[in-house]
Write a structure and sequence with these properties.
The chain is mostly helical and 352 residues long. The chain has a single domain, classed as Farnesyl Diphosphate Synthase (Orthogonal Bundle), CATH 1.10.600. 75% of the residues lie in helices and 1% in strands. Strands 1-2 form a two-stranded antiparallel sheet. The chain starts with 6 loop residues before the first helix and ends with a helix.
């Protein structure tokens, strides 16, 4: 049974979205007045940032902040949540270019929109124009994320900088792993952790805690990692399952995009490790951008037949249990423990 999102998630999301909406509107007004063509970046930014998303990063930051004794209504934690969403948007703008994705949340990606708008009618190459626009919008979003953390303490900036470095390291490992058709469990798990898990759960928790109580960093960061690291791994593993078997109408992404891109996932590593020679020949088709629906269906079936899907579900369950067990002795408020338990169930068993 798919768990219902904790009620607090919508409440946190509402405050963060209001902050983002006001911020983007202000910047849009500022720059569109300067030059009308500058409305386009803010249209794209508004569409991606306010057009959907689970707001998990702000939620984990919030409960790190409140769990360490902070006031849930403090503007600083709202700004930090908004900054995390902008950082995530930056990664998505760039990720869609790197992966050549044509849709995001059921809508055309920014580079696709601008490539089509160019259409070969203007100077230069349409594809490069569209990708250049998307990259620059992503870069602008990255700067705005930093701007929202203006005034944070030095310890908070240390966490923020480490988070951003780890995100880029993970993305680099992901693109190299795809090119090399990486299928080793150890490498896939490493990529899984650094490209998504750490910056989705562990580091937002750290950021919230340090914003709230920098003097307690030595007491809080390790226990928060004991929860955040295994749950972050489970989160990305669930993403990998959804990337192969998810419902496009729910996820907003074409089914099996990860197969066409040849992503180095733990799911694929498990399938290869257990495959017969005939099954391995089918799995070798992963990474072909023109994979037919029949080939995709064959790969999906091989993953099931090798036991890889069942084994990965077992890993997700074990990692989630590990994260939940860590809450028993975590030195945070009881409310935060309860909310983190609810979030653990949601992120591990969600269908989106």
């Amino acid at each position: 049974m798919v768990p219902v999102a904790p009620a607090s998630l919508a409440h946190i999301a509402g405050r963060v979205e209001a902050r983002l909406s006001a911020f983007i509107d202000d910047e849009d007004q500022r720059w569109s007045t300067f030059d009308e063509t500058l409305a386009d970046p803010f249209l794209a930014l508004r569409g991606l940032v306010l057009g959907g998303g689970k707001r998990l990063r702000p939620a984990f930051c919030h409960w790190g902040f409140v769990g360490a004794g902070g006031d849930a209504k403090h503007q600083q934690v709202i700004d930090a949540g908004a900054a995390l969403e902008l950082l995530h948007a930056f990664a998505l703008f760039h990720d869609d270019v790197m992966d050549g994705s044509s849709t995001r949340r059921g809508e055309p990606t920014v580079h696709t929109v601008h490539e089509q708008r160019h259409g070969g009618l203007w100077a230069g190459e349409a594809r490069r124009y569209g990708e250049g626009v998307a990259i620059l919008i992503g870069d602008l979003t990255f700067v705005y994320a930093d701007q929202l953390l203006r005034g944070a303490s030095a310890p908070a900036w240390d966490i923020w900088n480490e988070l951003r470095i780890e995100l880029n390291i993970g993305q680099y490992l992901d693109i190299v792993g795809s090119a090399h058709r990486e299928r080793r469990w150890e490498k896939a798990a490493q990529i899984c952790r650094y490209k998504s898990g750490k910056y989705t759960i562990e580091r937002p928790l750290h950021l919230g805690a340090v914003l709230s109580a920098p003097e307690r960093a030595g007491e809080l960061l390790a226990p928060l990692s004991a929860y955040g690291l295994p749950l972050g791994d489970a989160f990305q593993m669930r993403d990998d399952v959804l990337g192969v078997y998810g419902d496009t109408a729910v996820t907003g992404k074409p089914v099996a995009d990860d197969l066409r891109e040849g992503k180095p996932t733990p799911l694929m590593a498990l399938a290869y490790a257990a495959a017969t020679s005939a099954q391995a020949a089918v799995l070798d088709r992963v990474g072909e951008p023109d994979m037919s629906d029949d080939t995709i269906a064959s790969v999906q079936q091989v993953i099931v037949d090798t036991g890889a899907l069942g084994e990965l579900e077992g890993h997700i369950r074990s990692l989630t249990d590990e994260a939940l067990a860590s809450l028993a002795t975590m030195p945070i408020t009881l409310e935060a423990r309860d909310e983190l338990a609810a979030l653990a169930h949601y992120v591990s068993w969600r269908d989106i």
